Amino acid sequence: MATQHAQTEALPVQIDDVVAAHARISDQIVRTPTLISRTLSDLTGATVYLKFENLQFTAAYKERGALNTLLQLSEAARSVGVIAASAGNHAQGLAFHANRLGIPATIVMPRNTPIVKVVQTQGHGATVILEGDTFDAAYAHARILEGERGLTFVHPFDDPRIIAGAGTVALEMLADVPQIDTLAVPIGGGGLISGMATVARAQSRLVEVVGVEAELFPSMYNRINGTDMPCAGDTLAEGIAVKEPGGITSRMVAELVDDIVLVSERSLEEAVSLLLQIEKTVVEGAGAAGLAALLAHPERFRGRTVGVVLCGGNIDTRLLANVLLRDLARSGRLARLRVRLQDQPGALFNVARIFEAERVNIIEVYHQRVFTTLPAKGLITDIECETRDRAHLDKLVAALRASGYEVAPVELA
């Protein structure tokens, strides 16, 4: 990992590149705020500043690198157009700014891309081609079209122009809050952290850079540490679910980044939920990874002044609802209790009276008579209910057991 005085002269992106990128793009992007979160600071033991990149027009920092790249194309390249392979924020950022600048854009997406992402990208004026069942297949097809049509391929992370554009995030953060001494940065392919670490290393004071990856996709962690953990699974942080980090970015991370930590799916869910509840801001799983690191590794950040990048806010609304409901369940405010009853008149009524006495709201009731290991005259009832907190739920369970009922909470994974 990096030392603070690393020799960076040979690296493909320097601080001057980031400063030039900021001058190039600053009047065409949102100068997003960097604000302190007093509640999250109290919760984590660090002084937490949030950079709201989810407030960009396409709700992600990816616009910065895409725009920086487009503005450096020759007139000939602009007239022919650009192409990219992406099903996420890179697609929308590139499509939006290409359309604004009058540059034709083609985006290749896997065939299983959610229709909402296809429609959003088309809405920004891009031509969308669905090809293959995986990102790798879409990427390969995009490179073929690049050659056939003479298009300019815009890589989502492994390009100096993309990296320099991403680094403008840190340039703004450290200008707005000079006291930040640690940056917690999500890592997918490594473009964002490479750019931000370039800026951090150019400061006259120590600014530590800590990368964050989902446990299910520790690709950069593997590359840097020589480990071989699997990269697979259905992560909430699909924006950083990258199996192979970039060649340029791997080299820059090895030279410039102090540490990489891994976060669980549960920590990611908790971070998404807290940001909505506390900061009233919608953040996708990848965008919440920095806060997830503070929650999962408090000793690593305690006492530090930490800049956290909320790098994107494009989360499916149904998935967000699920995350919030799961968080309510883990906190005891929402529960499903499995109660064994006798199959006779008034059995459910008598149970409901206990819920009423404890002032617990019943949401749903599920009766199960057939698919059960109980005798024919027994039945299982699952009751979904809403309580004030964990203590209130525990009091209800105690009251049910005191009345002679067998009861067990149905736990979340």
From TrEMBL:
Q: Which residues form the ACT domain?
A: 336-413
Q: Where is the signal peptide?
A: none
Keyword Lyase in annotation: yes
Q: Enumerate the UniProt keywords alphabetically.
A: Lyase, Pyridoxal phosphate
Q: Which reaction does it catalyse?
A: L-serine = pyruvate + NH4(+)
Cite a single Pfam family from the UniProt record: PALP
Does the keyword Plastid belong to this entry?
Answer: no
Enzyme Commission identifier(s):
4.3.1.19
* GO molecular function terms noted in the UniProt entry: L-serine ammonia-lyase activity; threonine deaminase activity
Q: What class of enzyme is it?
A: lyase
**Cofactor requirement:** pyridoxal 5'-phosphate
Q: Which GO terms describe its biological process?
A: isoleucine biosynthetic process; L-serine catabolic process; L-threonine catabolic process
| Family that this chain belongs to | Belongs to the serine/threonine dehydratase family.
Q: What is this protein called?
A: Threonine dehydratase
Which organism does this record belong to? Answer: Sphingomonas aerophila
